[in-house]
Amino acid sequence: MRKNKIIALLVFLLLAVSxxxxxxxxxxxxxxxxxxxxxxxxxxTTGFMxxxxxxxxxxxxxxxxxxxxxxxxVFSISSIMTFVMGIDFxxxxxxxxxxxxxxxxxxxxxxxxxxxxxxxxxxxSDAGHKFVVISKTFPEEENFKHLYITxxxxxxEILIKAGIKNASNLITVIDNDHDSLYLTLAARSLNSKLHIxxxxxQESAESKLKLAGATRVFLPLIMSGHKxxxxxxxPAVEDILNISGVSERDGQFxxxxxxxxxxxxxxxxxxxxxxxxxxxxxxxxIRKIDKTFYxxxxxxxEFELGDCLIALGTKENYQYIMSSGIV
Length: 327
Known about the structure:
This protein is an alpha/beta fold and 327 residues long. It contains 11 helices and 11 strands.
């Protein structure tokens, strides 16, 4: 509504300038530029000397222009300034961000932006994965570079704002098992096909979270303990293999999922002629749509739609096959 008012005021302002310019042009026989100049200094009460001496008709027109035009100019400028000063730039930014979130599909929702949440968001961002962060507070919110929603993730309206009905994954890293359980229930009720990964602090919470609808449950302390133990028991493996996925590691070999979609040129080909070995990618295993897993498949294995390839290679090799259209 305010926007329409500003447009109307600008139209009236343009009409006042145009009317003044045409008035001087016909009454005094001046050029259009001289007429425009005289109109501007009259409406703004600048007080510069006249372009040329005015006739009686010209002076009468000037008085009319001052009385009518000045009212339009003053009212228009004050209204425009009021509009500009009244803009809530923070709310405007949130509306623009909400429009971007509403357009997302098959994205992930990260609930919680603590230390673990920051790492997850950083990894997803580096991989070019679409995601939305939900947290009650954000550090330096004005400079936050990810799409986000400020609020309690356990509330349905917040999850809906984050696009949960169009999302494919939800990761809850809230440091409270009760809150994580409630959030998992709310998320599952809103999207029955959602892949939910929930954090648990106590082992006793794992079974409850799965009953609530979590697809996977991870316990950070236990995972860290296993990681440290593996580095002691198998130090050579730790030196060359990073099982945490494709990320910024010092040239380590890494495991990553590669899903075959309908557009994949691999469908119908066999493992021995797919070209992976030439690009230093090793297929460790293949998981079918029905969850059947083939470990170390033979060269005559024929790829099918929906296959998930467990690939071993460096980050550079992985990025190459994903960007070159090989898969």
